[in-house]
Amino acid sequence: MLSVDNLHQAYGGSHILRGLSFEVETGKVTTLLGRNGVGKTTLLKSLMGLVKTKSGSITLNGQDITHAPPHLRVAAGIGYVPQGREIFPRLTVEENLLMGLATKPGKTPIPPRIFEMFPVLKQMLHRRGGDLSGGQQQQLAIGRALAMGPKLLILDEPTEGIQPSIIKDIERAIRMLAQTGEMAILLVEQYYDFAESLADQYLLMERGEFIMRGKGANMPQDGVKAALAV
Ligand SMILES: Nc1ncnc2c1ncn2[C@@H]1O[C@H](COP(=O)(O)OP(=O)(O)OP(=O)(O)O)[C@@H](O)[C@H]1O
Fold first, then answer.
1. Which residues pair with 201 in a beta bridge?
2. What ligand 1 atom has the least distance to the C-alpha of 34?
């Protein structure tokens, strides 16, 4: 589905991503773990075309998108939930969700599944995004990314600063989305238990390189938690 080959990226003189290669499969959750500042967000930004790739390639469903601008990557089927959510605070919940449909023909309805998954968005449809709690905003950001029916859903630390009950709702939603078999999910996470519970495949990053990788089910025996804590 998504295939990344020998990806390098640098900010000015500082080399951030060092030869990353991996695949993300449809119907599966791939979890990317690593401590603060190792390059996780930079990798996601490279996948979205928000920072330039120095060398290597990014292929989505056989299409080379290494140098494609962000809007074409969205049109090609990548839904992105950025760190810190970045919803539009002055727009209503409904307007935020409609923004997610910008690549679709006018009058395309908001998929009802979003409201089934996150009923609070229906209840708060006409409230301003900025008036929602952090957890509700995270649900809104995920709903907005889902509106256009992505083939690849990328989530950057969706549990950051969120209360435990909403973390459970988000976990359930991600598992359900993977099980539909309609999309691949790439999840960046520092909250180990959440990451382990969802991962089909894991990648552990340290200073712009993968230092461990494997099946999600092997995370405990591979000692990923301890490696993260070092
Ligand atoms: N625009 C930028 N210009 C220069 N350096 C940057 C820029 N953005 C990030 N960096 C540096 O690149 C490195 C990787 O940052 P990145 O945000 O990708 O890490 P991260 O693993 O996502 O961390 P976190 O979990 O804290 O978000 C850090 O050393 C950071 O200071």
1. 30, 215
2. 21
- If one residue of 41, 47, 48, 81 were mutated to test the ligand 1 pocket, choosing by the most ligand atoms within 8 A of its CB, it would be 41
Q: What is the pLDDT of residues 112-124, one digit of tens each?
A: 999 999 999 999 9
Query: Pocket residues for ligand 1 (CB within 6 Å)?
Result: 11, 16, 34, 36-42, 83
141 pLDDT higher than 90? yes
CATH, residue 103:
3.40.50.300
Count of the separate structural domains present in the chain: 1
d(CA 215, CA 230): 21
- List, in order, residues 6 or more apart from 89 with CB less than 8 Å away: 128, 129, 130
Atom of ligand 1 nearest to the CA of 43: 18
Task: Tell me which residue range forms the domain holding 36.
Answer: 2-229
